[in-house]
Fold this sequence. Notes:
Blueprint: E1 7-10, H1 17-28, E2 32-34, H2 35-43, H3 47-54, H4 56-73, E3 77-79, H5 88-94, E4 99-103, H6 106-113, H7 126-144, E5 147-150, H8 156-167
Parallel strand pairs: 1-3, 1-4, 2-3, 4-5
Amino acid sequence: MTAGPLVVLVGPMGVGKSTVGALVADRLGCAYRDTDDDIVAEQGRTIADIFVDEGEPVFRAIEKSAVHKALAEHEGVLALGGGSVLDADTRALLAGHRVVYLSMDVEEAVQRTGLNAARPLLAVNPRRQWRELMEARRHLYTEVARAVVPTDGRTPEEVAQAVLDALELKEA
């Protein structure tokens, strides 16, 4: 096991990485960190604004830097942005970490994300765009994950417990 986070959560937007990550951190008695929050704090603007103002390639470079920094610094529970696994260097860095892929089906995703303008990649026809994103990313989430935890029809508390169980981690 390499140094770094105790648990890393990956998965699509809206799957509940932030909510579940905070619950898992609480149960383990450690800190929680979200790389999307790091980016917003560092950039002083929303992720949607970065996408609109600078474009996706600039955002992905910022995201890569934030993820690499968090993997090196953070020792608690870490949630990564939905697209962070697109970067091969990031995927390589995740090897050896306790990575959990939180999964959900398209109907649940649309219910959770809706037509949220804060999600720039789902701005038009969210159902189709979410399916296309998942076709491009599902194998990457699976590649980096030690465990896959479905979230469909489960409460955040049930998902948090499933994460702990999947990694055989005990509550503090």
